[in-house]
């Protein structure tokens, strides 16, 4: 996003005094709302109504005011496991940015190659986000061994699709929250493997055993994938630094220049555009760090994230890295408590209503 | 297997598989402005360049439509000197079909390309394109959940999104499907078919639908499946697509078409109510009495 120098200066200066342009402090998250569990203020809505009825699990993360809107759906089916990991389920992830619109800066550029260039850029961003999420989250998202139905023969394959409708900074954060919520809402039917021996052993040489899978269609017996509560979240920490002014250099005792830096959480697009570095830290519910990845800074001309040639070269002092990770884990703890609190509130409300069977879920659609 | 199925019971009392009468459309909700273009921070977000959007749910089918424009045409060769170019893209989300998940490439799936084309023809009949020469209006349709009737839901969603974007239309284009099959010995004409009924009408013969594609043609000779788009206030038919063999001749087609037109009028009532509600909300906001609601789909 194109940003002017004075605007960048204003943003950096205000962040350095711990008061950002929308009034938050440096460790505050925006009030994301998860609307798949419809709010209890609207009495006509069914509580716990999923966003997508045809998927096994779904969620929608959005900010009121609609600057960020991310939808995630989880579909499950039974497949043969991969031969190298016969006792683990399979998780696939796909990110779709097609509705997000092209970058504004790209539209301003040449019109002819604009559409294709935009699409290619979008695909690159999509693949980058997908691969980052795959590396950072998927290995820890769910207990893979619990997805096995018949060891060696049939396992669950969860296909996670994230669709970003619009995003105002921190795509990875919003996507990871959406994935976590969708996984927690996923209901997998109870499947039992039944093995029967063939009746006539005499006729066939080797008795043909009939192998079957019994799928229990009762909604009450559907289970969530085990370990979904431990799905980690990505926190993107942006480091904003301002070059020292002329007066500072004169009065400093050391010879080298000192940059004033600050690490902020959940940056908006404008703040990301002035960031010198962005670090994505994956933290899980126990406070353990699952992964760290640095992205380039917000150079001019980039919409979401991604390095582009040499423009996005990121560098930050090593001492900042420790501070970044501690900031991230603190923010993650706050985020987890907030998400769980929201979930608990809705659960208290909905426990008085009827249990959600299929008819209850479909009530709004018919 | 002689167990009594739910559908048999329902058909005994002349109800369809989801409990509807033959002349009832599915439960339809419209949400105008599902992705509002403005942001609260005041700075123009360059990525959200949409002028209008709408989300339409018909039964379990959910379609989201985004309209961008009128804006500059990218290439000079594409622009028309006396009217606007209308560009329609239709794509499905990978989680859209019930059952297994398939990701269709929008540039190579013939069905989607055909439906985009039909959508473009249907909308061009209604938009006043001559008011915006040398510009482009681009419409993107994303099918979020497909339970049959995605073309009709897409047309309805596009109409509402165009209204939300403020692009002048001659009339609202409403779409609904109708079909006829042989149910329990007598012919029944039904409105707004869902996926199972479409498969029964176009796919296999008796005993449930065949494979997964409800490709055109090949149904038994009595079944007809007809999606229709009309402009109800003017009484003109904008689009109708029938790929079945008609055994009853032209009058069978006429009956089904009449039924579809009645369905379109019912759809129009729902859509008009949604437009009026949105207008009332905007009017109240203008007077300073706005109520802010967390936008829910």
TrEMBL record, chain A:
The organism of origin for this protein: Skeletonema marinoi
Name the record gives this protein: Ribosomal RNA-processing protein 42
Family: Belongs to the RNase PH family.
Domain Exoribonuclease phosphorolytic: 56-189, 264-305
Molecular functions (GO terms): mRNA 3'-UTR AU-rich region binding
Keyword Cytoplasm recorded: yes
BP-aspect Gene Ontology terms: exonucleolytic trimming to generate mature 3'-end of 5.8S rRNA from tricistronic rRNA transcript (SSU-rRNA, 5.8S rRNA, LSU-rRNA); nuclear mRNA surveillance; nuclear polyadenylation-dependent rRNA catabolic process; rRNA catabolic process; TRAMP-dependent tRNA surveillance pathway; U1 snRNA 3'-end processing; U4 snRNA 3'-end processing; U5 snRNA 3'-end processing
Segments traversing the membrane: none
Predominant place of localization: cytoplasm
GO cellular component, one term: nuclear exosome (RNase complex)
Keywords assigned by UniProt, alphabetized: Cytoplasm, Exosome
Localisation: Cytoplasm; Nucleus, Nucleolus
From TrEMBL, chain B:
Domain called Exoribonuclease phosphorolytic: residue spans: 24-168
Any one Gene Ontology BP term: rRNA catabolic process
Example of a GO cellular component annotation carried by this entry: nucleolus
Cited InterPro entries: ExoRNase_PH_dom1 (IPR001247), ExoRNase_PH_dom2_sf (IPR036345), PNPase/RNase_PH_dom_sf (IPR027408), Ribosomal_Su5_D2-typ_SF (IPR020568), RNase_PH (IPR050080)
Transmembrane segments: none
Gene Ontology molecular function terms on file: RNA binding
One Pfam match: RNase_PH
Family (UniProt): Belongs to the RNase PH family.
Name the record gives this protein: Exosome complex component RRP41
